[in-house]
């Protein structure tokens, strides 16, 4: 149960974090190795579960044709950004986030607005989040930081960009930098959900369940509808020996959860508490 719960929250936090910019956390080695087992948590994760371990998601025949046509038009196009955007959208539809990010970056280089750099950073962050091989994790982390830094140069208070940059340091040579940056974010905005959620997940990963529970409780107070925070709180309470409280949370979650994989994990948790 432990592995699956942490990975489920990790993926969910990452993919829902984009609601704030339009965040993932990088899991530690054990969770990272098992990511494909629970990647059905979100459609994007489901379709990319074997992207790194076997091969990238295949493009459909229609998508291949779309890309071919769009790339032919690039040679003579006066407005390449419009075509870059269309190409990026085709790759996004196929969950090829690395390829989509390349074109999102081209758009930002040609038109360096904050919004374009944020889009490029978000897309590289998705690629980073779902990367399996360490070399790709490192490469996408660096590209993510580069794009988001362009945003922060123009707007130092873009907290989602800073939160996502922080999470690219979790598996780096400076993992404490992630914690420090997240703390900076919540110092600036104590109610910023993505940073609080990420701090909770990092506490879970390091076995600091009391701290994790405190973070998730903060999120639930801010947003009672945050099912991921409730999931994290329930599991943290189990690890703290507060099984009665955890059972109440899981029973409530069972009534609210629609996603099959998450529901399955909640049922397993309840079964283990009998």
Automatic annotation (TrEMBL):
TPR repeats: 193-226
Domain of life: Bacteria
Region: Disordered, residue numbers: 31-62
Basic and acidic residues compositional bias, start-end: 31-52
Keyword Lipid biosynthesis: no
Keywords associated with the record: Cell cycle, Cell division, Repeat, TPR repeat
InterPro entries the UniProt entry points to: Ctr9, TPR-like_helical_dom_sf, TPR_rpt
Keyword Repeat: yes
PANTHER family in UniProt: RNA POLYMERASE-ASSOCIATED PROTEIN CTR9 (PTHR14027), RNA POLYMERASE-ASSOCIATED PROTEIN CTR9 HOMOLOG (PTHR14027:SF2)
Protein name per Swiss-Prot or TrEMBL: Cell division coordinator CpoB
């Amino acid at each position: 149960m432990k592995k699956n719960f942490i990975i489920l929250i990790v993926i969910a936090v990452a993919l829902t974090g984009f609601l704030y910019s339009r965040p993932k956390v990088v899991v530690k080695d054990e969770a990272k190795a098992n990511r494909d087992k629970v990647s059905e948590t979100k459609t994007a994760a489901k379709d990319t579960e074997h992207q790194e371990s076997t091969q990238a998601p295949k493009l459909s025949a229609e998508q291949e044709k779309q890309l071919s046509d769009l790339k032919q038009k690039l040679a003579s196009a006066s407005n390449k950004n419009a075509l870059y955007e269309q190409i990026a959208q085709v790759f996004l539809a196929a969950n090829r986030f690395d390829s989509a990010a390349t074109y999102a970056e081209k758009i930002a280089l040609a038109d360096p607005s904050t919004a374009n750099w944020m889009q490029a950073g978000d897309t590289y962050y998705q690629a980073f989040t779902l990367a399996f091989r360490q070399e790709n994790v490192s490469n996408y982390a660096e590209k993510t930081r580069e794009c988001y830094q362009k945003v922060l140069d123009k707007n130092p208070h873009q907290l989602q960009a800073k939160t996502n940059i922080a999470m690219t340091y979790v598996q780096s040579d400076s993992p404490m930098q992630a914690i420090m940056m997240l703390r900076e974010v919540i110092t600036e905005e104590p109610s910023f959900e993505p940073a609080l959620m990420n701090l909770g997940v990092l506490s879970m990963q390091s076995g600091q369940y009391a701290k994790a529970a405190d973070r998730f409780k903060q999120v639930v107070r801010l947003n009672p509808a945050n099912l991921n925070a409730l999931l994290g709180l329930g599991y943290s309470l189990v690890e703290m020996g507060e099984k009665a409280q955890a059972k109440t949370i899981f029973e409530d979650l069972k009534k609210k959860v629609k996603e099959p994989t998450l529901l399955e994990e909640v049922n397993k948790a309840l079964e283990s508490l009998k």
